[in-house]
User: Fold these one by one.
Assistant:
Number 1:
Amino acid sequence: MSSIRPKTLLVVALAAVSAVAVSACGTQKIQVASGTPMHGGAVLFQERCAGCHSLATAGSNGSASNISKALRNNGPNFNVRKESYERVLYAIQNGGFSGAIMPQNIVTGAEAKLVAAFLAKYAGADVRTPASPSQMMGGAAAAKPVPAPKQDLAALGASVFTSNGCGGCHQLSAAGANGQIGPSLNKIGSDPAAMIRQSIINPNAVITAGYAKGIMPPTYGASISPKDLDALIAYLQKVAR
Ligand code: HEC
Ligand code: HEC
């Protein structure tokens, strides 16, 4: 008779398997608010692209997943690489840029456009802040969740939002704002802080689909102090979810 019971062995084996699953080809939670058009793109990305590409927003960690199997199919890490809509559509149709590894037309038509719009918006979110040492080493730490904003900072942020007239163009229920010129900010708080920051201080760098360039003033980076800007972002992350 064996001294190790079969049940114990099974538990140990399962623990080993799940540890590998988490560290190797983990698919984690999608970080885009459900119900938004971008969420559809995130879901498609997680289903079709995550096996080979990493992107925290889509809960995907495929870029590094195949090292142990020595396969050449791990593609670029989209946490640290920006992509344009046109580049993504081209890569989807052509099978990457080289045409050698990535299969062609994994998504087509409207689905391809949705994934391209999603990647154009979210890829490279971590390049907008100076690269940290861990990002340079492959971006593994880039999937860390954004820490919860502090209470007092968010209170200051509410007054920054109001005093800068953001509500004249944007809807934000928490602030009683109902502007219709720009996109609603009611769900913006689930975006990474670096992305919200970029949208505020450099609004023309990435234009929200369906809106025109050059309408949101490009001057907030100069007129809002760094502390007020941090507060504004903390506020949006707290109330706009
Ligand atoms: C089987 C693995 C695999 C899958 C699945 C895959 N890719 Fe790729 N992809 C790669 C590899 C490898 C490269 C880099 C080599 C190249 O460009 O040919 C790449 C390159 C790219 C590039 C060019 C990146 C750059 O800046 O160089 C884009 C954009 C891209 N993929 C998007 C996607 C999208 C969107 C999907 C899902 C619809 C997807 N990929 C699915 C393996 C894959
Ligand atoms: C004169 C109108 C106007 C004002 C004032 C304005 N915005 Fe905008 N904003 C826009 C428009 C139009 C867009 C969409 C085009 C773009 O992405 O730049 C936008 C985009 C954004 C986005 C990106 C939204 C998304 O869905 O990705 C954020 C975040 C944002 N604004 C925050 C602010 C904040 C915070 C303020 C105040 C400090 C502000 N805006 C003031 C018009 C405005």
Number 2:
Amino acid sequence: MRRAWIVGAVVVVGLGAVIATITMAPKQDTDTEAGLPYWAYPVATHKWPKPDPNETATIPGSDKTLTIREVNNGFGPPDWFPDDHPPMPDIVAHGRKPDVMACGYCHLPNGHGRPENAALAGLPAAYIVEQVREMREGARHSSTAKMGSINAMMRIAKASNDEEIRAAAEYFSGLKMTKWIRVVETDMAPKTDINTHNMLQMVPGDQEPIGDRILEVPEDIERTELRDSHLGFIAYVPKGSIEKGRMLVKSGAGAYPCAACHGPTYHGNGEVPPLAGRSPSYIVRQLTDFKRGTRNGANAAMMRPEVAKMSEDDMLNIAAYLSSLDP
Ligand code: HEC
Ligand code: HEC
């Protein structure tokens, strides 16, 4: 009798372990500091080969041919589609040497940004000015000092002046955010690796359980490396996360409903920023930073009760839902 009980227990525990290994995400090779979700704050563990700067490149739909050196010029980034947007102010197109890299280099000329930075298109101009001021003064910083992309933004904020940021803010604020992220609910996702731009990218061919992660990867890594502003990202999210996120956002995750301040469709309201269709990795970083108090500018106080009881899973679900909405 007792033996049967033990055998039964062993079988149950064994089965549990098998199920756990099936549903749990495999361990990723990452240098992200412990306690932070690595997929929102990715840090590479190994060097990646550098492309030949003299090679030339083209992308579909643009009549330009550029060298890789031109593509990677932080003080004159590629503008493959100049007809997509109004003329860029000098600070967006060229920045100011030696310390203020062109805003368009990371945030792209159309302001749609990438997972390791942020989308600026359609943000309220006054909000942009305020955020950069808070980064300059230290009221807004990240939960980690390990992401090179964020450290670069903080240096730029410190080196830039009000006039430059006002010009950039007017420009990005006037751009329209369009659908840039394709959210896919799944149990199995492509295997990913972290590249030296603090970005996840797919490892071709291999699949693994998604577990409790959002994997935001370029639709086509080669085109993203060329800074193509016509092709965005796929966000693989766990099955059921969008609906869970919708409920949390509607109820307010233990505080006020998000719509109370971010607008009925989460497209922003006055100086409160829009959330719909924005990068889920960026959203999780911000919720984490509000919760840890490293994002602590003048208006961050309004977000503090919202994140007080929010778990990492809640953040994941909220981000899956918000990024799935049309911007
Ligand atoms: C080297 C890359 C890089 C460049 C160049 C850059 N940024 Fe950023 N920016 C970032 C990153 C990374 C973040 C996201 C920080 C985070 O995740 O916490 C960011 C975030 C921002 C935000 C916050 C957006 C939000 O929704 O709150 C603003 C505003 C911003 N940048 C403005 C600018 C302006 C203006 C310029 C040009 C003067 C600029 N950035 C140049 C990397 C860059
Ligand atoms: C009481 C008003 C209020 C409510 C309710 C509120 N927010 Fe916010 N939220 C703000 C303000 C104001 C900011 C800008 C904070 C700053 O300036 O640092 C913000 C910023 C954010 C940001 C960062 C956006 C960016 O571009 O960097 C995210 C993400 C966010 N809120 C998510 C949420 C979610 C999710 C909820 C619901 C669970 C929510 N907010 C509820 C007022 C609110």
